[in-house]
Design a protein that fits this description.
The complex is a heterodimer. By secondary structure, chain A is an alpha+beta fold. In chain A, helix 9 crosses helix 12, helix 12 runs antiparallel to helix 13 and helix 13 crosses helix 14. By secondary structure, chain B is an alpha/beta fold. In chain B, strand 6, helix 7 and strand 7 form a beta-alpha-beta unit. The chains are: A alpha+beta, B alpha/beta. Chains A and B meet through helix 3, helix 4 and helix 5 of A and helix 2, helix 8 and helix 9 of B.
Chain lengths: 606, 302
């Protein structure tokens, strides 16, 4: 009996629903906002689980459901403490630094542009200034370099280019890993030559890394990245050899490019090993090590373009604790963490596709049922069992699809195109697995494909910790005694302030997504209404996914109701388009909450 | 005492092993070479190009002749690959290239440009066939290989193996390995058209796919010995003997292995007799050039 109840409950929690109908004349959101479908409440057959069943992620006004006890602090290798460092970008145009004076170096070509960064927020101001000076000097050196990098054939190439013009140069600095008292930067330069008749171009692409121990300003060698019991260079050699074994061609680069869709690295001569002074930088969100290949690694075919190849070093890395400090070295000591994302190759995923009812009309696909199930090979059986295409969802929705199809065909003399797509996508962030299932069902008139007769979109989000087969509840990712909804409300407020201040740009660790402050100011939103909107949204959230620096929050169909309630009439004379602009804008403010704003130290996920 | 004896024995064993494997490098008594006897200034240096497979040879050669470190000397040579180096030589863009002998198409292209190639063979490369290590077949004849790639022999049982289909992988057209197949085993006009999935784009892939017993239990692939042993050794494949002869540097050097491709210095036939290009090509077959071939892991002609 218990088993039957469990099966029943399981089937009820399969989907958190947001039944959506999309009208053909709905305007698009402003370009800087993510495209989201406007949600209406007149969906077809609601299959939402009843409220109060005690499962996580069910839709409805009851908000998050409590499930289980909070899990103890679970800091893993994929969790790193973020540096409270402010990084400002300075753009250069026409020899002038934006917001500053003229540049004090001579670029290789007058038509030069680019950007560099400066850091602030270290307690040791003299060290901070020294680091900024070194970043600038390295940047200036790269930008001023007009020489031919010493690749195979460089001297011959110099002769070839004697009568060519250097047309423009672009140099910039990317910020990589900014955590655990380490700062990784990638310097890039792009130089383009053109012949006199402007019919041919030749490009040189250079890259270099700068990896700093922020306690001392010292450069970090590649071997220091590895745990003490790992021979870093041997590990890298093995990774390279595996890569070569998997990918390389030695006598035929032209066919090489035909067969590969990745970085396309090719050997120019036998691999001779990774050197201690190998150039590298570390990716900011994945923690992956990016090896930079150029003339210093002649065994990689480069053709004057620096290449990079990344490896998931995290399992053998010593990011946490390699450069410890008894006291914070940052002025701002607020706790903040990042969950490193995990890279998966195509071969690490299992994707199963099933199609039926395929019917191709004169203008393309007329009818189809497409079921695509995708999950990661290293997910546990219990986790995979939650992939929707393995449950009764397919049967349920295909039944719905065919009955609806018959119904509409009868109404429209058979001129109906019908589409059902059921898909799952799984991703791993830190020690967590996000499973997102989506069902899209829509019918259009065959001769008027923009005339949508019926549409329903259902989405479900589940989060698993480690190898657990039980989805996490929102409560379980906070420590005992913390009110998650209140935290969510506070995080929304903090983010709103960050958007207004423009600091969402400079504080990537606290940024859910970039939103333009000036646009929000132009909307002149009512602060009181906004506060109520935040409060109600925080109570209505029904599921989440774990991202690197924030929780993505989902609301089913509740959010549009709430935003309409507080901002549905703001359009006034501006018309319907303005209404939607406002709705999109305020909904973007509650689409996620950063760990920093939620209070990272009170969360169990780090 | 015992220790000394064992050290001596070990030394003798090692020396024997090296000699057997043809690894000894004392061409003309040369133990090491810092500078070539042929010295060329930067100004007079001809435009040199070639295959990536032989880059270690000709960049080291440039270093010895220009008297510069390899890191600097390699800036004075191109490495456009065989596919591009031959047309560039025919078009007069480069003066000397280091490649395997030209294919029929490459010779035809040169003729259209009123050019003939002259080749100086200075090293040899074994064209090898491999299969999964669990395949009981150890040796094939050239005739059997011909018939396999003509589509006449389709089951390993027909060549002394298990009753399973022969999956004869091929490389893409224009690749060095495919040219080798046409040169050594079967003319292009006779070769069967492989199913798409048996046309492998890269040399690395062909080794991988044959090594993967689960996917290709009856796989057969081909490549060059230098690549398989120096750049892409996979423990799950085994090299097949051809006509009963094992593909090894020693057998290539002794001329016993039947499928040998000639590595050549190639130039236009109208180069003057005393031109630097000819002098460089001649140097490649000298003791110094042969020392360099062995030094870089190739099988010289001497």
């Amino acid at each position: 009996m218990k088993k039957h109840i469990a099966v029943f409950l399981e089937s009820l929690m399969i989907f958190s629903l947001c039944a959506c109908s999309l009208k053909a004349d709905v305007p698009h959101p402003p370009a800087y906002l993510p495209v989201r479908e406007p949600v209406a409440t007149y969906g077809y057959e609601k299959t939402a689980a009843p409220k109060g069943q005690g499962q996580p992620y069910t839709a409805g006004g009851s908000g998050f459901q409590t499930k289980g006890e909070p899990v103890p602090h679970a800091s893993g290798k994929y969790s790193v403490r973020v540096n409270n460092l402010k990084i400002s970008t300075f753009f250069i145009h026409d020899g002038m630094i934006e917001g500053g004076g003229p540049i004090d170096f001579t670029p290789a070509v007058s038509s030069f542009s680019g950007s560099f960064v400066r850091i602030s927020g270290l307690k040791d101001k003299s060290l901070e200034e020294d680091i900024n000076r070194r970043i600038y000097e390295k940047y200036a050196a790269l930008a001023s370099d007009s020489s031919m990098p010493p690749y195979v054939g460089a001297k011959l190439k110099e002769k070839e280019l004697q009568n060519w013009d250097l047309s423009y140069q672009y140099c910039y600095v990317d910020v990589g890993l900014n955590a655990e008292n380490m700062l990784s930067l990638c310097f890039t330069s792009y130089r383009s030559f053109v012949n006199r008749s402007k019919t041919a171009y030749f490009n040189i692409y250079a890259m270099d890394g700068m990896n700093l121990d922020l306690r001392t300003g010292n450069e970090i060698s590649i071997t220091e990245l590895f745990a003490d019991d790992v021979d870093g260079l041997a590990w890298l050699d093995q990774q390279m050899e595996d890569y070569i074994a998997k990918h390389d061609s030695y006598d035929d680069r032209t066919s090489f490019t035909m067969g590969w869709y990745d970085t396309g690295l090719s050997l120019a001569m036998p691999f001779s090993g990774i050197a201690e002074d190998q150039k590298y930088y570390i990716n900011g969100f994945s923690g992956q090590l990016n090896l930079i290949f150029d003339y210093n690694t002649p065994w990689v075919y480069c053709d004057y373009m620096a290449r990079s190849l990344s490896f998931d070093i995290v399992p053998v890395a010593a990011y946490s604790g390699r450069f410890p400090s008894a006291e914070s070295i940052f002025e701002d000591e607020t706790a903040d963490y990042l969950l490193l994302s995990r890279y998966y190759d195509r071969t690490d995923m299992v994707t199963e596709n099933r199609n039926e009812d395929l019917n191709v009309g004169s203008s393309g696909l007329k009818d189809y049922v497409h079921v695509s199930s995708s999950y990661l090979k290293d997910m546990t059986k219990e986790q995979i069992a939650h992939v929707s295409t393995g449950l009764d969802t397919v049967e349920r929705y295909t039944d719905l699809y065919y009955s609806k199809k018959e119904e509409l065909k009868a109404l429209y003399n058979g001129y109906v195109s019908s589409h059902l797509s059921i898909s799952d996508y799984c991703s791993r962030i830190g020690d967590f697995v996000n499973v997102r299932g989506t069902v899209q069902l829509y019918f259009t008139r065959t001769v008027y494909p923009n005339d949508i007769l019926y549409e329903e979109t259902v989405q479900r989000n589940l989060v698993f910790r480690g190898s657990s087969g039980i989805p996490e509840s929102f409560e379980s990712i906070f420590r005992a005694g913390v009110d998650p909804k209140e935290r969510l409300y506070r995080a929304f407020k903090a983010y709103w302030q960050r958007v207004l201040d423009g600091t969402s740009v400079d504080s990537p660790s606290a940024m859910v997504r970039y939103l333009d402050a000036s646009y929000f100011r132009s909307l002149d939103l009512d602060e009181e209404a906004l506060d109520s909107f935040f409060k109600e949204a925080s109570q209505s959230a029904d599921s989440f996914s774990v991202q690197s620096n924030y929780l993505e929050i989902f609301y089913g169909n509740a959010l549009r109701d709430i935003s309409l309630k507080y901002f549905g009439n703001t359009g006034g004379e501006k018309g319907e388009k303005a209404d939607y602009d406002v709705l999109f804008a305020v909904e973007a403010l509650v689409s996620g909450a950063s760990y920093r704003d939620l209070g990272a130290d009170d969360m169990t996920i780090f | 005492m015992k220790k000394s004896v064992s050290v001596i024995l070990a030394f003798l064993f090692l020396a024997e092993l090296c000699a057997c494997a043809g690894l000894e490098n004392n061409n003309g008594g040369i133990k090491t070479l810092e500078k070539a006897s042929l010295q060329i200034s930067e100004e007079d240096w001809p435009v040199i190009d070639g295959a990536t497979a032989f880059l270690p040879y000709y960049e080291h050669m440039a270093a010895l002749m220009l008297d510069k470190p390899v890191e600097e000397a390699r800036q004075y040579i191109y490495c456009s690959t065989t596919d591009y180096a031959y047309p560039k030589l025919a078009d007069g863009e480069v003066d000397l290239i280091f490649c395997l002998k030209p294919s029929e198409d490459q010779v035809k292209y040169a003729k259209q440009k009123n050019v003939e190639f002259e080749t100086v063979n200075f090293a040899n490369e074994a064209f090898v066939f491999f299969t999964n290590k669990d395949n009981p077949v150890d040796s094939l004849t050239v005739k059997q290989l011909h018939d396999i790639y003509a589509g006449k022999l389709t089951n390993w049982a027909e060549v002394g193996g298990k009753d399973q289909p022969i999956i004869a992988y091929q490389r893409s057209e224009g690749s060095g390995s495919q040219t080798g197949l046409y040169l050594h085993v079967i003319p292009q006009s006779e070769v069967m058209e492989p199913p798409k999935e048996q046309r492998i784009a890269t040399m690395g892939e062909i080794v991988d796919v044959v090594a993967n017993y689960d996917n290709a239990p009856g796989g057969l692939g081909y490549s060059y010995l230098y690549f398989v042993t120096n750049q892409h050794f996979d423990e799950d494949i085994k090299l097949l003997k051809i006509e009963g002869v094992e593909p090894s540097n020693a057998n290539v050097a002794a001329g016993k292995y039947p499928l040998i491709s000639e590595v050549c210095a190639v130039f236009r036939n109208y180069e003057a007799k005393d031109s630097l290009v000819r002098q460089i090509a001649d140097w490649c077959v000298s003791d110094e050039g042969q020392w360099l071939a062995a030094e870089e892991g190739y099988v010289g002609i001497k």
